[in-house]
Amino acid sequence: MELKDKVAAVTGATSGIGLAVAHNLRSAGMKLVLTGRREERLKKIAAELGQTAYVAGDMTDPAVPGRIVQKALSEFGRCDAVINNAGTIEMGSVEEIDIDRMCEMVRLNTEAAFRMIYVALRHFRSVGGGDMITTSSVLGKTVRPRFGAYAGTKYAIEGLCEGLRKEMAGTGIRVMAVQPGLVMTELHDDWEVHPKDAQGMKTPLQPEDIARSVRFMLEQPDHVVIPQLMVLPAEAEI
Ligand SMILES: NC(=O)c1ccc[n+]([C@@H]2O[C@H](COP(=O)([O-])OP(=O)(O)OC[C@H]3O[C@@H](n4cnc5c(N)ncnc54)[C@H](OP(=O)(O)O)[C@@H]3O)[C@@H](O)[C@H]2O)c1
After folding, report:
1. 238 in any annotated domain
2. Of 10, 12, 23, 35, whose CB neighbour count within 10 A is largest?
3. Backbone phi, psi, residue 168, to 5°
4. pLDDT for 26-83, tens place per residue?
5. Are strands 31-36 and 7-10 parallel, antiparallel or unpaired?
């Protein structure tokens, strides 16, 4: 679609991939609604970008997805795309992972992502079209030891998106998932050993690499859909 003057909501836009997507889509002329819990960051980013509104809140609050779509409609009169990106990671063997933190991750990566899709879908249905891109992961397609719980949340996303894409065939609603490999963001900030070092990787992805891919998916003409786009560091052996 032609992006100029269209409206996109981007969840998890206070850092990392979501922030880079916001910059990229804004440079393409889109108007934005950004979300995250850190309101000060949202305020600053919105002021820098211009034509950008925000909703501060926890995505696991079931009311938040509806507030995001409503914000797009009240500020800009339309909502053409949702980049369903907020997420977190808990790593650990199934025997040792902190079960409560794991369940928080499931609530955010899976339940909240599903609710966002559910709400956006109703709006897109009412206007006869729209684009939905959810940030999955390469770990939505393959699993490694100690990443089973995280991969489970992303496999769930893949299943939902693929089922929904088929249900929406021919409706004007495009359902897509982007599947990044290792990206340098705040996601691994509190890890004792960064996965880049654990994997001996020299040149992991940057958030802008994923932002370019998201824009590419959105810019396809209406008769084209890219259901999944995996984006890996060229040196990845996964
Ligand atoms: N980095 C990677 O290697 C990689 C690889 C594959 C897939 N991914 C996926 O990419 C997505 C973005 O992650 P990232 O790498 O960009 O990490 P990040 O820099 O940590 O960004 C995560 C974003 O999600 C938001 N968020 C976290 N918990 C939230 C909550 N409970 N409610 C609302 N917003 C919340 C954060 O904002 P606040 O803290 O302000 O709430 C932040 O904007 C995630 O879905 C992740 O699984 C990342």
Report:
1. no
2. 10
3. -95, 5
4. 999 999 999 999 999 999 999 999 999 999 999 999 999 999 999 999 999 999 999 9
5. parallel
How far apart are the CA of 135 and the centre of ligand 1, in A? Answer: 9
User: How close is the Cα of 223 to the center of ligand 1, in Å?
Assistant: 31
- Whether 84 is in the pocket of ligand 1, judged by its Cβ within 6 Å, is no
pTM of the model: 0.98
Does some domain include residue 194? yes
CATH of residue 116's domain is 3.40.50.720
Q: What domain range is 16 assigned to?
A: 7-231
The mean pLDDT value of the chain amounts to 98
Q: Please name the amino acid found at residue 97.
A: I
Distance from Cα 16 to the centre of ligand 1, integer Å: 7
DSSP string, 120-138: HHHHHHHHT-EEEEEE--G
Q: Whose CA is nearest to atom 14 of ligand 1?
A: 16
Domain count, the chain: 1
